[in-house]
Design a protein that fits this description.
The chain is built from 13 helices and no strands. The protein is an all-alpha fold and 223 residues long. The protein has two domains: 95 residues, Orthogonal Bundle (Endonuclease Iii, domain 2), CATH 1.10.1670.10; 111 residues, Orthogonal Bundle (Endonuclease III, domain 1), CATH 1.10.340. Helix 8 crosses helix 9.
């Protein structure tokens, strides 16, 4: 099955996902940092606390007392590390002239913009690419744990494949379209949350007939 055919099957099964759940580009940036190593429901609680404190702006986060920021984002877990990362990101946004300037720079030279985001403490490829795709509408594919797991179970990629290798495959196989990449990544998350978990729930999975891992598991269960 091609990557485009996989997208079409997932879209037929789950429909449009409407990602990323953020009201502003900066909220997307904050969410991308807070979602590291935690469930999205915890991020939503942390963002709600930031909104209640009227602190969901680059200036408010950059200048907030560290202890106060840690308290606001405590529901997202690892709050000390994430507070430091958020303040670094917020200062970067201010130094670069704001979100609109960063968006223009990302669309003008995506590679250079990506390198800048990756240079920030605590910002790895998945977080940087989530920011570029969802906050700035730049066509760059986000590879996450769900994507790696699903591709490996479908026999479409090695479980040892690197982030860069997998991303390059999506870029080569699909039109460079931000809306498509946005939807595709969200569909991987939907499949991963509902079916393709660490301990898979194969019953009812829309890819069951195409999944070698599920077929092996079914044969083993029948012995």
């Amino acid at each position: 099955m091609s990557l485009l055919a996989l997208y079409e099957r997932l879209f037929a099964a789950f429909g449009p996902q409407g990602w990323w759940p953020g009201e502003t580009p900066f909220e997307v940036v904050v969410g991308a940092v807070l979602t590291q190593n935690t469930a999205w429901r915890n991020v939503e609680r942390a963002i709600a606390r930031l909104k209640k404190a009227d602190a969901l702006t680059p200036a408010a986060i950059a200048h907030a007392p560290r202890a106060m920021l840690e308290d606001w984002i405590r529901p997202a877990g690892f709050y000390r590390q994430k507070a430091a990362r958020l303040q670094g990101v917020a200062r970067f946004v201010l130094e670069e002239g704001g979100m609109e300037a960063l968006a223009e720079a990302a669309r003008r030279n995506t590679d250079a913009a990506r390198r800048k985001w990756l240079s920030l403490h605590g910002i790895g490829p998945e977080t940087a690419d989530s920011i570029l795709l969802y906050a700035f509408d730049v066509p760059i594919f986000v590879i996450d744990a769900y994507t790696k797991r699903i591709l490996a179970r479908l026999g479409l990629a090695s479980s040892e494949a690197t982030y860069e290798d997998l991303q390059a495959r999506f870029h080569a196989a699909l039109p460079r379209d931000a809306k498509l990449f946005n939807e595709y990544h969200a569909l991987f998350v939907a499949l991963g949350k509902d079916f393709c978990r660490a301990r898979p729930r194969c019953g009812g999975c829309p890819l069951l007939a195409h999944c070698p891992s599920a077929q092996v598991a079914q044969k083993a269960a029948c012995r």
